[in-house]
Specification:
Shape: globular
Structural class: mainly alpha
Helix content: 40-55%
Order of helices and strands: HHHHEHHHHHHHEEHEEHEEEHHHHHHH
Radius of gyration: 23 Å
Strand content: 5-15%
Distance between the termini: 50 Å
Number of strands: 8
Largest sheet: 2 strands, antiparallel
């Protein structure tokens, strides 16, 4: 089996006769310079290039990157968290992709609504192409089965995300052509059950150890299956699946701060990551792009910062964030550093807060401009890279970490209503890694299901902040109204310059189908909440 040092062969696939979505607008015709499916799938190299294309699709700026060297031409996982109570693009709001979803003013013509759909179906297209054609390649049956399983898991990730955003969507599992280009929606419940079945089949084929870094494993397939089950409140399925993952030998990396660095991206906590190579190789990530200072275009909220409790496990009682000018406006350069002392160590690993220094700068705090929230994001940012190399970084993005598995299993135990003691033990495992006190010593013993639910949700927020999961958590817990109100209240309390966030009701929990798709597909019907 050949290894993939980088995702390769993408140019070879760019002209293939494939569909990115359902509409025949996406159909690409053969030409003298393109490669068609009839001539491409012949050698093992073709198969490897086809598989690389599936993985490469995840690097799209609207999936698990943030644009192609352009921070403003995408909306990756860090910016997805900025659409929640964890953060915002307060300094640069009003035009960046996703700002309108964040502010509750989006429509079926909004840019992120269309780009997220297009990027997801592009990956699905590539996966379906491999699955449908690889049997024609002269290679071993075991390798063919492995490639199919990897493509199936990647496709399953896309359907997990699509069903969490658009809900009912077209379910494509074969290559589209002119004769079947138009297709209707499939119910979310049907998609979920089919994808869960696919993941079980793939997990039975996939190896425990990755063929090379970034390749899908049994643990990745099972962890995604557990996530999908959890997202759809199938507690028994989530529990049985996550318990299998616990037996595969993963562990928590001892240093949370050092976890999000290139040096440790191959550690035993990372179950699946989107692989990048850099800097200066044109194969890098711009998730942590900056200009030699904290990035003021990506802000964290005080609400999130205060979710990182003191070292005694209690929330801070210091409510003073900043000084104020004579006109009553917030003085964003005169800040209360003391309120962040003696906090959960994950705070400084996740956020750039008052009192911190950037790399070897002899001044503290502050970016090119003061953050409108007084806070910046630190996770995935490397101050030792510069204003050029940070936009082409070799830092992988972690799709699934073992910590998520532990907290998701804890949540499933709590929601099932039994094994609450096991849920507490799992939370304690995550806390112990950073030296935070156990549940029993802070929240007490004999917790009710409701009380323990809040403990798990809080732990999940601080452990996984700015990893692209918060929006889905808020959606599935139906907490968007509460999140919107808290951030609007934060702006009012501290006199911060935030744009107002709207909440229009249930339609905020499902994204509209892009209008371009509705216009070009006669069988595709808009969601009832968006008609």
């Amino acid at each position: 089996m050949k290894t993939m040092n980088k995702y390769i062969g993408i140019a070879a696939l760019s002209g293939m006769t494939l569909l990115a979505g359902c509409s025949d607008d996406f159909l690409q015709r053969d030409s003298l310079t393109s490669v068609s499916t009839s001539t491409f799938w012949q050698t093992e190299t073709d198969a490897l290039n086809g598989l690389a294309a599936c993985y490469d699709g995840l690097q799209n700026g609207f999936l698990y990157n943030d644009g192609n060297g352009d921070k403003w031409n995408g909306c990756g996982p860090l910016n997805m968290d900025a659409m929640t109570d964890n953060g915002g693009r307060f300094n640069w709001s009003g035009w960046m992709p996703g700002y309108d979803i964040c502010n509750g003013i989006h429509s079926s013509s909004s840019r992120l609504v269309g780009e997220y759909w297009k990027a997801s179906y592009e990956v699905i297209k590539r996966c379906n192409t491999l699955i449908s054609n690889i049997d024609r390649v002269a290679m071993g049956a075991d390798d063919i089965a492995l490639y199919k399983a990897e493509a199936t898991v990647i496709r399953s990730l896309m359907y997990t995300n699509l069903t969490m955003t658009y809900n009912d969507v077209p379910y494509l599992v074969e290559v589209q052509s002119l004769t079947n280009a138009e297709c209707p929606k499939t119910a979310r419940e049907t998609i979920v059950q089919n994808v869960m079945s696919d993941l079980k089949t793939a997990a039975a084929v996939l190896p425990k150890e990755a063929v090379s870094r970034g390749r899908v494993t049994k643990g990745a397939a099972l962890s995604l299956l557990g996530r999908l089950a959890l997202y759809n409140e199938q507690w028994d399925e989530a529990i049985s699946t996550y318990e299998q993952v616990l037996s595969l030998g993963y562990s928590l990396f001892p240093d949370y701060t050092a976890l999000f660095t290139e040096k440790n991206e191959g550690c035993n906590e990372i179950i699946w990551g989107v692989r990048y190579e850099g800097p200066a190789l044109q194969e890098g990530s711009c998730l942590g792009g900056h200009w030699d200072t904290p990035l003021e275009a990506l802000n964290a909220t005080v609400d999130l910062a205060d979710a990182f409790y003191r070292l005694d496990g209690k929330p801070t009682e210091d409510k003073v964030v900043c000084a104020y000018n004579e006109d009553g406006s917030a003085d964003l350069w005169t800040l209360n550093e003391d309120r962040y002392a003696n906090r959960d160590p994950r705070l400084r690993a996740t956020l750039f807060i008052p009192g911190m220094a950037w790399a070897d700068k002899d001044w503290y705090y502050g970016g090119a401009a003061a953050s409108y929230s007084t806070l910046y994001v630190m996770k995935y940012f490397n101050p030792n890279l510069n204003g050029t190399t940070s936009w082409d970084s070799g830092q992988d993005f972690y799709l699934i970490r073992y910590a998520e598995v532990l907290l998701s299993l804890a949540e499933a135990y709590v929601e099932k209503g039994d094994n609450l003691s096991k849920a507490i033990a799992l939370v304690n495992d995550v806390r112990n890694r950073v030296g935070m006190p156990a549940v029993e010593s802070v929240e007490g013993t004999g917790l009710t299901q409701s009380a323990l639910r809040e403990v798990v949700r809080h732990e999940r927020r601080v452990e996984l902040a700015f990893e692209g999961l918060r929006l889905f958590d808020i959606y599935r817990w139906k907490l968007l109204k509460d999140a919107v109100d808290r951030i609007n209240n934060e702006a009012k309390t501290y006199n911060f310059w935030y744009e107002y966030r709207n909440y229009r009701g249930e339609q905020e929990y499902v994204w509209p189908i892009p209008q371009t798709e509705i216009d070009s597909n006669s069988q595709l019907e808009q969601h009832s909440l968006w008609k």
